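Input sequence (57 aa), recorded before submission:
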Amino acid sequence: MPRNIELKKTELVLKDSEIDGFLERIVKPFGTSAKADIPKKYIGRRVYVIITKTVVE
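Predicted structure, token format:
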């Protein structure tokens, strides 16, 4: 079942056939910023981060 994700305010369209997978990570403090580690195999790839309202404690 092909799926599309469309954002009305921009021109971003994600199609199921173009997605390698989804990753869920917890953002951790890093100096004065934050980070989320992802696997090395995604170096050089375009990534999208989706921020949710839920806070993990």
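Checked by second reader. The mean pLDDT is 79.
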